[in-house]
Amino acid sequence: MGSPLDFYGITLLVLNTISFVLFLYISIFFTRSYLRAKIESLGFFSLSFILLTLSRLISAVSTALEDPKLSLAMHTLSSSTASAAFLIMLFSIRFSEREEVFIVVPPLIALSFPDLISFALSFVTSLLVKGKYLKNYILMLSITFLLRGVGSLLMLTQLGLYLIIFSEFLMALATLLFALYHLKKVIVV
Amino acid sequence: MSLLRNDLKTVLLATTCALLVVIPPLFVYFTYPNTGGYETGLEEALTDLPVKPPSFLIGSMSIGFHRGRSPIVRPEIEKVGRVIYAYWQERRQRVLLILQPRYIGEESGRIISANDVASLIMNNNATLVVEVFETHRGFVGIVIEVHLGNQTYYAIRG
């Protein structure tokens, strides 16, 4: 048995769990709206939030797991799920606005750099999305993915380790704010 | 319009998302080095961090910087204060040795503590088998086997 989670681990777990619950609520709201209205862009938006919900759940599980192999696989899965969510969100924005031809991101790139893929997708999403707060939150998330990706590359330095630890906390915090923002919108609607 | 209409764009999006989600974690899981789970001992070498290193961080170090399993013989081992170092011939580097909390004797079944193992290593002609990892603090070896003549002690994880 490994030692129990410290304050940092518990904070990550709590933030991720709260984000999971909020995203779940938002996903249910969007899914119900899509089922009523059958608007395609709403469906894609709903799908991206379902994936973000899963991403937070997986991230919480990865924090709680003691086995490094499984924890790392879950950690990567949380990034790759989030990158798929942002890909769908990006697709939804482009699709609903201009009906442009969709360009597929080569999936092989994701083999080595899921965090950097998540960064690229969320960064482009943040540039295209409308709404000041949403734009800022997605930008903050994209920065955390960049820090995580760069941190992994610099792991042989203390800076790399600090980057990963800090980015994980920032990501959990940003996701919570992101979820709270959308919850507010959903409740207002 | 239905979300599930079967046009090329939707199929491409679904395929890309599925690959994006599935490939990276599977790649990580199946290329993870066979460390026997002893990498958790790296926690002891990462005491300079402000927080307890999360499991995924230990996992990241293992997949990125596991340098294999190596034997180390007694003349190459030295004790500096409470810390044991060894000279690793293969890379001509100094390795910080991390002991597991408990070890079990192969023949006797006797369980001994890390302190007992440290004494045995320093006072006998021991040969160690270590899992070596490269970290920002240099090379770290997790001692998984201690051979003392015809007696062998194996690390009990965690």
Features:
heterodimer, A: 189 residues, mainly alpha, 2 domains, 6 helices, B: 158 residues, alpha+beta, 9-stranded mixed sheet, 9 strands, elongated
Descriptive overview:
Chain A is mostly helical and 189 residues long. Chain A is built from 6 helices and no strands. Chain A has helices at 7-37, 40-64, 68-98, 114-128, 132-153, 158-188. Chain A starts with 6 loop residues before the first helix and ends with a helix. Chain B has 158 residues and is α+β, with helices and mostly antiparallel strands. In chain B, strands 1, 2, 3, 4, 5, 6, 7, 8 and 9 form a 9-stranded mixed sheet that branches. The termini of chain B are far apart. The interface between A and B is large, with 62 and 49 residues.
Strand and helix map with partners:
The complex is a heterodimer of chains A (189) and B (158).
Chain A lengths: L6 H31 L2 H25 L3 H31 L15 H15 L3 H22 L4 H31 L1
Chain B lengths: L7 H24 L23 H11 E8 L3 E4 L2 E6 L4 E7 L2 E4 L5 E3 H10 L3 E9 L2 E11 L2 E6 L2
Parallel strand pairs in B: 4-8
Antiparallel strand pairs in B: 1-7, 2-3, 3-4, 5-6, 5-9, 7-8, 8-9
H-E string of chain A:
HHHHHH
Proportion of β residues of chain B?
A: 35-45%
Mean pLDDT of chain A equals 78
The total of helices of chain B stands at 3
Low-pLDDT sequence parts of chain B: none
The helical percent of chain B reads: 25-40%
Q: Could you tell me which chain pair has the largest interface and how many residues each side has?
A: A-B, 62 and 49 residues
Summed up:
The complex is a heterodimer of chains A (189) and B (158). In chain A, helix 2 packs antiparallel against helix 3 (68-98) and helix 5 runs antiparallel to helix 6 (158-188).
